[in-house]
Amino acid sequence: MLKRFRENTMIRLFKGEKGIGSPDKPVRRNDKNVRRWYLTPGRCALFLMDAIHLRLLVHRASALRPDVIIFDRYCYDPLAAMPLDSRWVRQFARILLRVVPKPDLACVLDAWPEAAHRRKPEYPVDFLHRYRNAYLLLADIAGMKVVPPGTPEEVERHVWKQLQASVARQLGSIQFSTSASSET
Q1: CA–CA separation, 6 vs 50, rounded Å?
Q2: Per-residue pLDDT tens for 47-80?
Q3: What tens digit of pLDDT does each residue of 105-123 get?
Q4: What is the C-alpha to C-alpha distance for residues 47 and 172, in angstroms, rounded to an integer?
Q5: Domain with 124 in it
Q6: Domain-embedded: residue 22
Q7: What's the rounded Cα separation, in Å, for the pair 96 and 61?
Q8: Distance between CA atoms of 133 and 68, rounded to whole angstroms?
Q9: Per the domain annotation, does 19 fall within a domain?
């Protein structure tokens, strides 16, 4: 919600660059890695609006009766960028997580900060360490499954296992016939 406004405001206020860049030509982002106390209340208000909007999106999508709805980052990414070491911010995160529909399966694809920085160098490594720790804490708060760092094949196998377990809980025992699951 208000994506362009947010992005342009952060670029103007904190002198960041737009885009994601690449390992050979990184951009300097100054958005979620900017941690000023006075930004937290404003972010909370924006994230609450996002949560309400997300709830409406899930409701609309569910009305179409799809078999599966997949979200990338859902509402977790903005929360992980918040100072979750603060008790009141953790409480806000818990409240926000009650506003949005709880997914049947939510996974955090864990990554070593140094490896993530080599792939997408727009954020400093020290921020990536804090961000990873926040995501792991948020995984505990939100009941997300943590997929450990690994090769793409290992991560894929782990995600398939999580998906199979989730479907089995929802529908009873079921077998998948995919190359990823047959290797396990």
Answers
A1: 12
A2: 899 999 999 999 999 999 988 888 887 889 889 9
A3: 999 999 999 999 888 788 8
A4: 36
A5: 3-149
A6: yes
A7: 20
A8: 29
A9: yes
